[in-house]
Amino acid sequence: MVTLSEDEVALIRSILTALRAIKVRDIDKALVILAKGDRLADKMSR
Questions:
Q1: In angstroms, how far is CA 33 from the centroid of its own chain?
Q2: 8 with 16: CB under 8 angstroms?
Q3: N or C, which end of the chain has less CB nearby within 10 Å?
Q4: What are phi and psi of 26, to 5 degrees?
Q5: What DSSP assignment string belongs to 12-44?
Q6: 27 phi/psi in degrees, rounded to 5
Q7: What is d(CA 10, CA 38) in angstroms, rounded to the nearest whole number?
Q8: Residue 18 half-sphere exposure, CB side, CA atoms within 13 Å?
């Protein structure tokens, strides 16, 4: 079992709150953008 400090608990709570506010559609858009960036980087490295 891991013991967390008050600062760590506050950080985790704020991250979870932020994640709860993100819409699934926004996550999908971000994944598409990242995938396009990966493909572009692969092409440029060849």
A1: 13
A2: no
A3: N
A4: -65, -40
A5: HHHHHHHHHHS-HHHHHHHHHHHHHHHHHHHHH
A6: -65, -45
A7: 33
A8: 6
Q: Tell me, what amino acid is at 2?
A: V
Residue with tokens 């440029």: 44
Which residue shows structure tokens 């396009």? Answer: 36
Tokens encoding 18? 């932020």
| Domain range summary for the chain, segments of one domain joined by + | 6-45
Backbone angles phi, psi at 23, to 5 degrees: -85, 150
Q: 4 and 12 in contact (C-beta within 8 Å)?
A: yes
pLDDT (tens digit, 0 to 9) for every residue of the chain, 46 residues total?
889 899 999 999 998 888 888 888 888 898 898 888 777 777 777 6
